[in-house]
Amino acid sequence: MLLEFIRSIPGQTFLSIHLVYCAILILISKYTLPIISKILNLSPVDSRDDIDAYDITILKYNGEPAALAQTMFFKLCAEGYLEPTYVYRELLFKRTDKSPNNLLPIEQSFLAYFNTPGNLNGLVSRQRNLSILNGFIKELKKRLTYMGFIKSTPKSIIENTIRMALYGIMISLGLTKLFLGISNNKPVKYLLIELIIVSVIFFYVTILSKT
C-alpha cells in the first residue's frame, strides 16, 4: 500500500515533498547527534591529572608527529635547554649545559639530537625519531581517552551507527521512488541529482568530532 501511494505521487510533487522531508531530517540529525554525543560522554573520570601543552597539541592537531615535535622544541627552548647558534650563517640550535634530569625520557631523547647543532626539520625527518614520537602520541591518546577528552572506539561506533541510521531513514523515501521510477521506465534524473545533493549536505552538517 505504501509503495502504491509513493508511486501515485507525481514526479514534480514528489521532488518538493522529498526535499522538505530531507531538510527536516537533516536539521533533526544536526541537533540530535551532538546531544547523543554529550550523553555518551557523560562518564566523569576520577582523575587529578591536568592536561599540558602536549595534550593540547594532540587534541588540536589530531596527533600529528610534526606538531608534537614543534611543541616539544619550543618547550625546550623556552626552558633553557636549547639555544640558537650560527653555523656557516645558518641558524641552528644546540643543547645548553642545563641538566636534563627533570625532563621526560622522550624529551631527553629529543634533546640528545641537539648534542651537535641541528634544526627541527632534521630531527623530524629521521625515522627513529618519528617512531619514538608516534609511541609517545599513542600513550598520550590513551591517557586523553581515559580522561574523556578523546572518544573511545565503542562510543565512536555507536555515534556512527546512529548517524548512518538517520541517513538511511532520510534516503529511504527517495531511493524507493527512484527504484519505482526505474522499474516503470520513468525519468529519474532530477530525483537522482536531488538524492546526491541531500546526501552531501547531510554528511557535511553531521560531521562527528573525534574529541
Q: What can you see in these coordinates?
A:
The chain has helices at 2-8, 11-40, 53-61, 65-78, 105-112, 120-124, 127-147, 153-183, 189-205, and strands at 82-87, 90-95. The chain is mostly helical and 211 residues long. A two-stranded antiparallel ribbon has the order 1-2. Helix 2 packs parallel to helix 9 (189-205). The chain starts with a helix and ends in a 6-residue tail after the last helix. The mean pLDDT is 84.
Beta fraction of the residues? Answer: 5-15%
Classification by helices and strands: mainly alpha
Shape: elongated
Pick out the low-confidence regions: none
Number of helices: 9
Largest sheet: 2 strands, antiparallel
Order of H and E elements: HHHHEEHHHHH
Helix content: 55-70%
Average pLDDT, all residues: 84
Quantity of strands, as a count: 2
Query: Cα-atom Rg, whole angstroms?
Result: 27 Å
The order of strands across the largest sheet is 1-2
End-to-end span in angstroms?
45 Å
